[in-house]
Amino acid sequence: MPPLCTTRAVAAVATAWLVVVGLSTGATAQRGQASPAAQPPPPTATRQQFAPALVEEGRSQFAARCGFCHGRDTAGGAGGTDLTRSSLVAADVRGDRIGPVVQGGRPDNGMPAFTLLDADLAAIVAFIHDQKAQAETVVGGRRAVDVADVSTGNAAAGRQYFDTRCAQCHSASGNLAGIASRMQGLTLMQRMLYPGSEGRGGGPPPAPPMVTVTLPSGQVVTGRQAYRDEFTIALTDADGWYRSWHAAQVRFIVDDPLHAHVDQLATYTDEDMHDVLAYLHTLR
Fold it and tell me: Is the pTM higher than 0.85?
């Protein structure tokens, strides 16, 4: 049984990640330098000062109510914008523009309305402005990867690749229907390359793969994979017991549909990844 991660697969993961974050050389790097994510935040129209205690209170309020979408540091999260680059925040004076948006929401963009005490809203406003002020002092503008950094592929070529290599498990009208309405840019590419990672796409993490182990005695044990490396295979059986064996001393089969994505990383070219991403962006 080969080890879980071959040298080739590890190298492919590293190469893929460089492409994803816009650090690969050549055209991608040049494009990233000119992308919106590389531009400095818009300047704050009216400089404002807030008590440190109010900012800290806003930090916890923001994390609890806004952090999932906008990131705990206001720099963008799962579908939410980077508030340090928001023109509305730049023009805001002590909540005169932020407040109505928070209280009224933006239903067209998927943002709900929040009913907050005035003190809680004031704290959130203070924290947002404090984070924006810090962002303006960062040398070099880049704090994130913009959609433009990874949206360079050919959708038609991506569809052809998808139909050839991905359609056995995925369907544009089935399990991937509307995916571009839920995820875009870096988040969508991360989901495409590493679909088993927790927290991506807003759903629960997938269940561990099923493992069937055949002992030298012929006894067969099945359960959810609990651990695996080149030396050990372990599972949790139906009764909740953790059981492990030396991998060389047993025969085992791992039923892991997501492992196909690991194998795929070893075959993707940079062009393939961006073409498939461009195609996925059309599935709204």
Answer: no
